[in-house]
Amino acid sequence: MADTLLSIEGLTKAYPGVVANDDVSFTVSEGEVHALLGENGAGKSTLVKMIYGLVKPDAGRMTMRGAPYEPATPHAARQAGVAMVFQHFSLFDALSVAENVALGMEEAPKQRQLARRIREVSETYGLPLDPDRLVGDLSAGERQRVEIIRCLLQDPKLLIMDEPTSVLTPQEVEILFETLHKLQHEGTAILYISHKLEEIRTLCDNATILRLGQVVATCDPKTASAREMAELMVGATLHTPSRAAKAPGDVVLELSGLSVASANPFGTSLKDITLEVRSGEVLGIGGVAGNGQDELLAALSGEAPARAEAVCLHGEAVGRLGPNARRRLGLLAAPEERLGHAAAPDMSLTENAVLTGAIREQLVANGFLKWPEAKGFAERIIEAFDVRTPGPGNAARSLSGGNLQKFVIGREILQRPICLVVNQPTWGVDASAAAAIRQALLDLAAEGVAVVVISQDLDELMEISDRFAALNEGRLSEPRPAQGLTVEEIGLMMGGAHDMEVAHVDG
Amino acid sequence: MDLSTINPAVLLASLMVASTPILLAAIGELVVEKSGVLNLGVEGMMIVGAICGFAVSVETGSPVLGFVAAAAGSALLSMTFGILTQFFLSNQVATGLALTLFGLGLSALMGQGYVGIKPPAMGDLNLGPLGDIPFVGRVLFQHDVMVYVSLALVAAVWAFLKYTRAGLILRAVGESHDAAHALGYKVVVVRLAAIAFGGACAGLGGAYLSLIRVPQWTEGMTAGAGWIALAIVVFSSWRAWGVLIGAYLFGGVTVLQLNLQAAGLDVPVEYLSMSPYLITILVLVIMSSGRGRAALNAPASLGRSFHASH
Amino acid sequence: MIRLEKRPQPSRAWSYATPVLAVIVTMIAGGILFAVLGKDPVLSIRTIFWDPLFGEFAFYYRGQLLVKAGPLILIAIGLSLGFRAGIWNIGAEGQYIIGAICGAAVGLAFYPMEARWLIFPLMVIAGAVGGFLWAMIPAILKTRFNTNEILVSLLLVYVAEQLLASMALGTLRNPEGSGFPGSRNLQQYDSAANTELIAGTGMHWGVVAALLAVIGAYVLLNRHMLGYQIRLTGQSPRAARFAGVRPRLLVVFCLGASGALAGLAGLFEVAGPAGQISIDFNSGYGFTAIIVAFLGRLHPVGILLAGLLLALTYIGGEAAQATLGLPAAAIQAFQGMLLFFLLAVDVLTNYRMRFGRAEVA
């Protein structure tokens, strides 16, 4: 066994109401790929923020190569040789690649020199990148390369990667793993955060499993079974959604040649999307983040108007109609972003029930709101979908992610849609809430509703979809029956490896 | 009307003088907005700068000390905005308005004893033979030092934003405060520094009005100059040289309408007086209607409060 | 070290308490300011806040209270609708001027005909329409060209002031005024005068309109879909679009309503307390109303109370000017301070203060 690089002992961090990390201890050896495994809310993010100097622990200590390690800021962490690839929030859209890289370095060289080094490193590791491009124009995978290169330029001793594969196609994941193996051979230790068991089994030497802020186990992922690890992670035997076999009915939703320009300057425009969804069918739409998912949802919900005939519901052209007119016809939607899109954070659940329910639940008469009925509707959602909250008078932002998501999805399901479109229905949601939501979507389809699930979680899509299609740069692949699709086929539908190439393993 | 009374050299020279207060205020606000903060209190900071500068230079007899005091006074005032928006997370629009309303009241209060006094004069910079060049010398090289300071500030801000690491960090904070925070940059500190710089610049602009351009103290003498400075930042698409063009364009309109008034143009004075405001609106419309990539220069976090939650 | 911690939901108790706290803190800071100016702070505060209501001359001042509060409340109610939706009309002063000019012009056009049932209502309509149309300029520029409504509405104040001067000196000048600027006095023209309805109370039609506006805004915001859409848009524009709100319509409605109300306030003022169009007709109500709107927490009932309080500072300020020689500007600074402190203590509504160890942030 190699020498210990980072040792963590009894790290504890409490926030009001939650203990994010409770007496967490583990060690990472030199050149080891160490997995940090846990569900959403298990405390992985808080833990790595402490290692990266963004959050100060309440108790416990860390040592780096035997010396005390107490980074007060990310600068200190970087100086100590720790680098981090973030899942969100660390790139600047309107700045160039080189500027973004410079911002993440302690002593950035002059821009021209930096641009040359970016080119060198990107070639060595098979991560092609143009230093002069604006980051906002890059795809999700390319954006991740910016972060990785930013880390590599500093020759880190420890590289932290937070859910790096959530923005990659299966082919790109393979290439990333090649890069990580190359780094490992060069002696860099990697702390790899994920909740995807298969990845961890192929990549990691050791795994520390967190649940509710505590270390529940440390194991060798190559020998432990996936089921074993899953149960350690979740703490209970998981309920797998059940589905009834059925023959699909008539075409409910039909898109033909749907093209919509993105409202966001860095967004992806939809190009010529054609598909059919039948009653009782779940159509899963996969794809890496930022390939037009938000735009597709907006085009279906009515937030982004399109050519009238491009969107048809039961043969009726609805492309020009706004959200409420579509709701009246039974085309409902639940967007990805819970706070600020699907729900207003500071408004009560009753008020949020009105947000989409006003029309189909008849909560308005002559322009005046019927608050008692609205409250009743909110209570029905809370009841039917087991939303944990003291009552409908509470603000949306006071709910946990999983509970709010159950409320948001439940709000649409209870309105008896003819066609329901959801984007990332279980993103950032704990496992039991996710299972409940998936089951609810399957039940809805069983009742004859046409369901479109847009998601970046391929496992989820394979679990609940009847047919599968993928978005890639605003285009939709031909939908295919989900059963029997291989990972390779799915990856190619998502755009394959784009322009990535395998790292030149020569060093 | 007698247009022959208008001397082009004098017109252009007075254009530079007329533009300087707004240029100073706008270049400061540009830096503030680049850091992601919208400070609508420019008008209030300008007028407080106007009275601080006026009072101090009258008391000490030194216009230079007056300008220093104006910058310091307005920077201090801007810190009330800074503390409120950065620590107390108040709404930036409301707080900026409060700053303007408070500044107008405070300046009137401070200026009680200074109405009707003439401030000590600030001489023009002697640039030797440059000033003697025909036409060009009169237009460009016979001004007080603040005109050149304002031009130097524009160049300095441009170079700072484009070439320095600190400028890059400032832009990054304005672009996404969450990302900047995640990388370990002190969002609040950067923004407070930008707000103070903006305050100091607005103060200089105000003092230029009361000490050189007018030169005397009257209540509410900025007459919307701070708002026009805000409009010019939009006009510039958040670029330093754009601010210069915008300010000189506005100064040109102002000087031209004053000259037309003096020449006895057959249009009621009130309509000429409102023309700079109308033209500012017109320019705003033209700039904001052209959407697309140009709008990307607007800092993405502009006006949003930052609170490091975890 | 003090730390802020976001509350899971806004505190109801603090949302009521913060305006009161702000007023108290402002009184203390104002007292210090007055002391610096060489005045007895306790006496000054008493002269401003107590004497007009309960002092020797209260019978006079109490009437003035409604006269000043009327336009402040009327304008602030309109502004609060937009502020709630994130639509910032800060040019109410301009809409107030234009409403006054339009209303007065209609009245003067009929002079000297006597027909109160016709002329006064027409003036009211003209005032509202004038303010509405003036506010439509930023509204249309915003919806059509995406132009910033804050700057346009504000710049239009200066344009309106020039128009006012031009009217007072030209078009609307009293032909029998021996060349002095200013229009005929509408108070002396029975068909156009906005008279006191109950003698000695200061109650005129503008105050009635303000009370109606308070009730109307309350119903709109709490019971009506449009009010719900306004609140939703202010909180999260994206959720509002998802809910089917048409943002442009909302911009037009909010700016239009606030413009019309500000125009009405101008008309009632010019036909009543002011009496005539003059160069210095406007006295900053349009800006003070911004303070009123925030102090009232953008809530109709809160605005009613805040309007009365700010009216009190105006009247008390005048009293303090007369008896103590406190400069008029001191009151203006005092009002600005009030808004500052309100915004500062407002943080308590959404955040909890924690005293203790600093956190790396």
Explain the overall architecture.
Chain A has 507 residues and is an alpha/beta fold. Chain A has helices spanning 44-51, 74-79, 97-103, 111-124, 140-152, 170-185, 197-203, 226-234, 293-301, 323-329, 349-357, 371-384, 401-413, 431-446, 458-464, 487-493, and strands at 4-15, 18-29, 33-37, 59-64, 67-68, 82-85, 158-162, 189-194, 206-211, 214-219, 251-260, 270-278, 282-286, 311-313, 316-317, 331-334, 364-365, 368-369, 419-423, 450-454, 467-472, 475-476, 480-481. In chain A, the strands form five sheets. In chain A, strands 13, 16, 19, 20, 21, 22 and 23 form a seven-stranded mixed sheet that branches. In chain A, strands 6-7-8-3-9-10 form a six-stranded mixed sheet, sandwiched between helices. The longest helix of chain A is centred in the middle third of the chain and has 16 residues, at 170-185. Chain B is mostly helical and 310 residues long. Chain B has a single domain (3-297), classed as ABC transporter involved in vitamin B12 uptake, BtuC (Orthogonal Bundle). Helix content of chain B is 69%, strand content 0%. In chain B, 55% of the residues are buried. The model of chain B has no long low-confidence stretch (mean pLDDT 88). With 361 residues, chain C is mainly α. Chain C has a two-stranded antiparallel sheet with strand order 1-2. The interface between B and C is large, with 50 and 52 residues.
